C-alpha cells in the first residue's frame, strides 16, 4: 500500500508526465513537478502538482521524494540519470517511461549507488497529441505497464513501485529489459517502419488513382505512418540491434513468400496460419499498438448511469465498437471505456457526453 502524503517527483511534464501528476495528485499523494517555467505554471494552474521546479533546480526538487519518474525524451533520460542518482535520498525508487529499456537500464547500472533503486518502466499508453494540456488522469487505465528491474533489485522494491503503478489503473508486467526490447522491435518498431515503407511505396507511384483506391484497407494498415520521426528516431537509435534483427527476419520471410507465390498449397497454409495466429491476439488489450480510438468516461455507481451514457451516444448516431467498465468500485464508480473505429466518432461521442456533464477524456 502507498500512504497518502507520499512524495512523488515527476521530471518532464509532457503528456505522460502530466498524466502521472494528474493521477497521483488525485489519489492524495504529494506531487512535485520539474519542467520549464511556463509548463510548471500551467501544471500549478491545472492543480496537478503541489510544487514545481525548473530543470536547473532538480537537486532541490528531489529532496524528500520516495519515487522519481523521469519523463523527458528518450535520449535525455539517459543523460539525466547520473545527476538524479547523486541527489536523491536513500531508499528512493527511480523509474522512467522510455519506449526502449536496455540502453537506459545499462546507464542506470553505471550510476546506481547503494540504497537507491532503479526500475525501468514503459507504460503502453499515449496519444497523437503532445503536451501537458492534453494529459488526463485516465491515460493509463487498463494499459499494460512494463517494469524492467535491474538485476538484484529486491522484490519488496519492485512490489512497492508496482503498488504505486496500480493507482494508475494500469496492469503491471515484469520483464527483463532485453526481452522487452526484443518484443518491442517485432510488434511495434517493425510495424512502424513497414507502415512508413508502404506509404512511401505509394508515394513513389505519384498517382492520384492509386491514392484514391488506397482509402480502405491500405489506409487502415498504414495509420501509424503519421507518427513523427522526432520520437521514432530516438527509439530506433536505442534499439538498433533488435530492429535490425526484426527487419532481417522479415526480409527472409518476404523473400521466401516471393519465391512461392505460385505454390497454392503453401499459400493456403500461409493464410490459414495467419488466421489462427490473429485469433490468439487479445482483441482490445492495450499493448504496443492501439486498436481503437478510446473515450474514457468517469462514471458514478448509480442506477441507470450506463444507460444514460450509451443512450446519449445512440441519439447522436455514433456506433460504439467496444465497451468495458474498468476499475469499478462499489459506491465510488469507476471508468467506462468506449472504443470507436474512427477518431471523428470518438470526438463526437465525447462532445455529446461533455454536454450532459460527464468527465471525459479522448485517447487518440
How is this structure best summarized?
This protein is of the alpha/beta class. 48% of the residues lie in helices and 18% in strands.
Describe this structure in words.
There is one protein chain. The chain folds into three domains: 7-175, 3-Layer(aba) Sandwich (Rossmann fold); 180-280, 6-phosphogluconate dehydrogenase C-terminal fold; 293-363, VC0802-like. Helix 7 (177-205) crosses helix 11. It has 364 residues and is of the alpha/beta class. It is built from 14 helices and twelve strands.
Which helices and strands occur, and which strands form pairs?
Elements: E1 7-11, H1 15-26, E2 30-34, H2 37-46, E3 51-53, H3 58-62, E4 67-70, H4 74-87, E5 93-96, H5 102-111, E6 117-123, E7 144-149, H6 155-166, E8 171-174, H7 177-205, H8 208-213, H9 217-221, H10 229-237, H11 240-259, H12 264-280, E9 293-299, H13 305-315, E10 322-329, E11 333-340, H14 343-355, E12 360-363
Helix pairs in contact: 4-5, 7-11
Amino acid at each position: 500500500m502507498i500512504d497518502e502524503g507520499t512524495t512523488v517527483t515527476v521530471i518532464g511534464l509532457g503528456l505522460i508526465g502530466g498524466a502521472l501528476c494528474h493521477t497521483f495528485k488525485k489519489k492524495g499523494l504529494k506531487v512535485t513537478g520539474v519542467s520549464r517555467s511556463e509548463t510548471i505554471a500551467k501544471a500549478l494552474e491545472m492543480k496537478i502538482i503541489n510544487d514545481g521546479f525548473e530543470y536547473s533546480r532538480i537537486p532541490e526538487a528531489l529532496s524528500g521524494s520516495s519515487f522519481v519518474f523521469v519523463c523527458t525524451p528518450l535520449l535525455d533520460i539517459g543523460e539525466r540519470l547520473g545527476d538524479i542518482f547523486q541527489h536523491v535520498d536513500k531508499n528512493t525508487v527511480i523509474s522512467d517511461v522510455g519506449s526502449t529499456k536496455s540502453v537506459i537500464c545499462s546507464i542506470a547500472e553505471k550510476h546506481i549507488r547503494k540504497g537507491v533503486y532503479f526500475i525501468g518502466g514503459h507504460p503502453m499508453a499515449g496519444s497523437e497529441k503532445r503536451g501537458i494540456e492534453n494529459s488526463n488522469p485516465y491515460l493509463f487505465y487498463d494499459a499494460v505497464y512494463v517494469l524492467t528491474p535491474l538485476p538484484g533489485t529486491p522484490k519488496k522494491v519492485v512490489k512497492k513501485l508496482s503498488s504505486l503503478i496500480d493507482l494508475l489503473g494500469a496492469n503491471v508486467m515484469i520483464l527483463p529489459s532485453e526481452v522487452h526490447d526484443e518484443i518491442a522491435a517485432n510488434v511495434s518498431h517493425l510495424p512502424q517502419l513497414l507502415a512508413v515503407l508502404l506509404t512511401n511505396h505509394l508515394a513513389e507511384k505519384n498517382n492520384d488513382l492509386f491514392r484514391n483506391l488506397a482509402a480502405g484497407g491500405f489506409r487502415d494498415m498504414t495509420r501509424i505512418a503519421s507518427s513523427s520521426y522526432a520520437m521514432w528516431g530516438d527509439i530506433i537509435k536505442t534499439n538498433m540491434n533488435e530492429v535490425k534483427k526484426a527487419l532481417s527476419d522479415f526480409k527472409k520471410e518476404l523473400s521466401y513468400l516471393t519465391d512461392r507465390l505460385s505454390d497454392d498449397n503453401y499459400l493456403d497454409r500461409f493464410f490459414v496460419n495467419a488466421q489462427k495466429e490473429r485469433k490468439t491476439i487479445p482483441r482490445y488489450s492495450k499493448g504496443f499498438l492501439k486498436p481503437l480510438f478510446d473515450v474514457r468516461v468517469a462514471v458514478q455507481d448509480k442506477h441507470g448511469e450506463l444507460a444514460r451514457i450509451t443512450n446519449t451516444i445512440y441519439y447522436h448516431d455514433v456506433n460504439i465498437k467496444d465497451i468495458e467498465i474498468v476499475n469499478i468500485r462499489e459506491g465510488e464508480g469507476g471508468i467506462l471505456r468506449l472504443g470507436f473505429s474512427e477518431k471523428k466518432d470518438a470526438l463526437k461521442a465525447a462532445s455529446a457526453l461533455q454536454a450532459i456533464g460527464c468527465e471525459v477524456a479522448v485517447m487518440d
